[in-house]
Amino acid sequence: MRGKHYLLLSSFSMEGIKIFALAFILCGFHFYTAQCQSCTIEKNVKGTIAVGESTSSRQKCWTIPVPSSHFIHLQLKNMYKSGLLCHQEYLKISIAGTSDVYQFCNSDTNRNPITAFDNVTVTHYVSAYNAKYTSFTLEYTIKTIECLNRNSFECDNNTCVPEDRVCDGVKDCKNGADEVGCETGVLSIKGVPESREEAVSWLKQKRTASWGWKENTPRAVVALYLASAATFNGTVLEEELMSKQTELKTAVALLRPSLTNSELSMFINALLVTCHSPRKFYGHNLVQRLKEQVEESGNFTHPLAYLTLCNANESWPARATDDLNSILSSNSEYHFVKDLQAMAITALSCEANRSKNIDNTTLGYPILTLYKKTIEHFIQLQAHDGSFGNVYTTALITQALLSSGQEHNKDWKLNATIKYLIKELNSSSVDFLTTNLILPILNGKSLMDISRVNCSANPRKHGEDPVSEINDYLGPKMRVRYSLYIGDEKDVIHTISLRVPENYTASEVMELAEVEDPKYKFEWKTTSGKMYVYEIANIANDPESGKFWLLYVGSANNSESLTHFTNDISSGASCIRVSGRSGTITNGKRAASHSKCWSISVPQHSRALIDMESFTADVDCDETGVTISLDNEDENYVFCSDSYMETLILNEDFTVTHRLYSSNYFKRSNFSLKYQIESPLCSQEDTYKCSDGTCLLQSQICDGTEQCSDGADEENCGNRRVIIHDLDISRINGIQWLKKKWSSASGWQENTHRGMTALFLARDKQLKNLNTEEKLMVKQLEVQTLLYLLRKDTYRITTNQLSMFVNALTASCQNPRNFYGYDLIKFLRNEVEVSSTITRPVAYLALCNAGETLPVNATKNLSSFLKINAEYPFLLGKLHFE
After folding, report:
1. CB-side exposure of 74: number of CA atoms within 13 Å?
2. Nearest Cα residue to 312 out of 266, 357, 356, 343
3. What are the binding residues for cyanocob(III)alamin?
4. Distance, CA of 377 to CA of 388 (rounded, Å)
5. pLDDT tens across 737-765, in order?
6. Which residues form the CUB domain (predicted)?
7. In the beta sheet, which residues pair with residue 627?
8. Annotated binding site: which residue ranges?
9. In DSSP terms, which residues pair with 25 in a beta bridge?
């Protein structure tokens, strides 16, 4: 579903059967389900279902979910001959998505194994006049579909990988079994490990203080990854610094008016190995941009562009065949043509790997013939010393031969080539390009191996998480309301409102929702090329009992066609209105499903302090929780029995929702939440707080007038000094708290600039001799600043935002006057001078902090603030700020 199109995931009418209905709305999509008998869910990939008891009547079922790209093998080991007829006792095995049903009776001798590719339900039925002893044992194993291939490699009892992935240098098996005993070819040559380590050390020594290699940063990052000298999996801070520098260089490049195909290709390859999605680089689709540039180009296209598109699993433009054909068929005497041909072979090898076989590609016979002839020609070019020309050409042709599967070919001298390359690495004239091209070879790799990067377990798989991805998105956004309706009578309704990019799909909205709240967790698989959602909120499709998830899509302006309840429960429309400046909300429920909410208004310029006093439950966080949602914002705070809640401070109306849903009836969930609404002055640090929640200015303390209800503001006024204990301890605790909120992948997200400034001001010395963690913080600040500069053509940067970046750069000893060619001080000053509205004081403060003279209108603007009769507390904040 994109834009205003819609996709029906599962839709059919069944007379007399209760159903789930699932409905998405652009500004609203809904799910609902009937309450039916549920089966026991078997979650292990291998197990036994067994029964042995005396009974006269019973029916019990078990559901075994089968993940996508897996199959299940079931074997009935035994079934006790109870003497009951087949209609009185049977074991039935049904397969979801098909009409296949297998039934076994206790008298059957045929117990052939069953193989299925979808979820399986096992039902044991007994109906007798008197109690009879019945028993059976059924064993099952779930394996990857690859295990059905005779030539597949078995990682363990449940997982297999294709044979061509064995000994390819990438651990495709979780236990690494596919790479055990693979020390052949390049890796078996004497001196290779030592030379690789020395080359890695040399490359790292050339790294600058900014943790990059200037314009060569993307290529160096790729070389280190292919040499297995860096994993970029988020666990090593030094690698995070290199990864962040790659982001920084990419963002700087995007600020330039144009990028060549080769430049863009190198950035994409570097993002791929660091597990940053080049399709979602802070709202920029770099892969699409590269493909469009290639398609629109009237000139020769470097084969690196095609290799990069293949590495990113992007289809090639129609002109790819002609371009590569012209390169491979060239008889030019220029030596660099051999370099281009080597790169073209590597690109075609990537395409062959994607198609599993070069002969199965759609490139056409002529280019396949050239591909094979060029490989043979390369082998014939080898000199006695193992080279194919100069060191650069030798490295490129070696990568081409490795990528095309020639590592073990006896027609060329691999050992001689590797020894030649090692000799060049050890020469006094070694340079960056030599090291960059040879390093992957010493690990048996080529640039084609970027296509095999596995980011499934990496925290940056989707830009760290969907929330960060949306925060960083630069394009237009829309609001989507996602609802789950459970039960024919809508016994339980869950609704979440999210602001997402306009091109977000329904599945991406669902992914974001499950990150925000675990009750939206869902399971799916690909069936016939389409996404099939078979479980949401721990409720699975169950054809036998008539439970299904269905998807509907509608627009905000046309919801009449949907007959479901569409009000958002978090909006407070059906919630209990709570009045009073303080109070306690409690709710205890013992039920299978329950939802109740309370709506609390926060007066303008006031704030609410919320504390969870207690939360106990018989179920885990997936089934019960308390959600605190802001009525006018996207933010939701979800708490459950095993989560810790710090004091939550909100500045606007909010809703508290208690929900309980259990697959079994009568579960308990109790909570107690305390809230207090403070007066406006309580948001300022230099105020005095009375016990009744009101706050006073320091000038009102000991002024002879009791203004606190208990007179505390006039007690102990003989000495008006304010004694502050344990100041250093509080400061250190504050720094530690701030650092705990920091992420090595995303800093403090949209508050990175303020976090850096606060950390600097809280330190007892300047940011000199930074440790690795602090260097990464500075790097994140630089990236965030560049992202705002990227936004300036689409969204105007406010003087407030620019001021906070200038303050943070100044505090961290960066130069805001020459920030990657941008004079942010000049930019800020121009914004202030041309502004038609009153400039906020923070802009003048930032200019002053940077040593810049204030514009001529500064005195007038600041005086206008000072002359205001401060009826509004936020104006006091501005006056105090100055």
Report:
1. 27
2. 266
3. 339, 390, 532-533, 549-551
4. 11
5. 888 888 777 788 778 888 888 888 886 55
6. 27-143
7. 638, 657
8. 339, 390, 532-533, 549-551
9. 554
